[in-house]
């Protein structure tokens, strides 16, 4: 059995907690229809909407229904602040969703095809700068629209990432495709708005993972060597202050202006923007998992504490802030030590000034 709690920005009901007020103390989210055994494995959030993907491949959404990023919504209850199953265009399409991502006003998903391969990429919502990936003339749809002729034959999508106005897909052969706003070079050359998936050239290693900042893209190779590349803007020194390599990485993430790399030994590397205390505080305990939001970060420790730091004006870093920030320190926003026996915090998530905590019983935790 799993339960999910959320804090942070909630003006459009994107936390799914039954109302539309920001909260700084974790509140239990509400599902319209979900089995409590169906564990949430991915948490993605846009400007005013949130996506939760379960281990069985069901996608749930909450938030602003007007831009289409929450999918098809019943006209009778469009503004209820809770999570509901996102309806795809074809009601008979029951292929499992394996990846999801969110731009500011759009959602992107990857489904398995009839052969069990991750080859069906859909988008829905609004994208005035190409982030839908559907060509120059389709910029809004509440129905999930298939991105045609993608990925190339014989390839699967193995990773999917997005930020405010661009999206990145990593292929099974290490190629990388991007679409959306590429004017800062975050989708490679030439720099422009890209309306359909375009292959990024000039990569000299096999990419296995990607993360997107507001105006940059972070690409990583195998953990053994830690080869990496940053495309796009160097604002906040996100390119020029990067290490030469990040071997033995475990997880990665990107805020709008910073990059985070969790290493196998539990140390968290970070570089880039730090005016709100976004980068790793000194003396941070050993970290098992990370989740990176727009301008804040979460870390799950060995002891089961969820630590939060960075920009927390909306309550996403807990109630204790100074001028809306948590700088050079962290808040504990949840802890497994205070849960009932047999329960633990299994997953954490972060979005645009939102934070998420998933609590599982011992038999379903990962």
Write up what this structure looks like.
- With 366 residues, this protein is mainly β.
- The protein is built from no helices and 26 strands.
- It has strands at residues 2-8, 23-28, 40-45, 49-54, 59-63, 84-85, 97-102, 106-112, 118-126, 140-146, 157-162, 166-171, 176-181, 193-199, 209-212, 216-220, 228-232, 249-254, 258-263, 268-272, 287-292, 296-301, 305-311, 325-335, 343-350, 354-361.
- Strands 2-1-26-25 form a four-stranded antiparallel sheet, with no helix packed on it.
- A hairpin with a 3-residue loop joins strand 25 and strand 26.
- The protein starts with a strand and ends in a 5-residue tail after the last strand.
Largest sheet: 4 strands, antiparallel
Order of strands in the sheet with the most strands? 2-1-26-25
Cα shape: globular
Task: Kindly report the average pLDDT value.
Answer: 94
Beta strand %: 35-45%
Structural class: mainly beta
Radius of gyration: 19 Å
Contiguous runs where pLDDT drops below 50 for at least 5 residues: none
Termini distance?
Answer: 12 Å
**Count, helices:** 0
Helical proportion?
under 10%
Compressed to H and E, one letter per element, the order equals EEEEEEEEEEEEEEEEEEEEEEEEEE
Tally of strands: 26
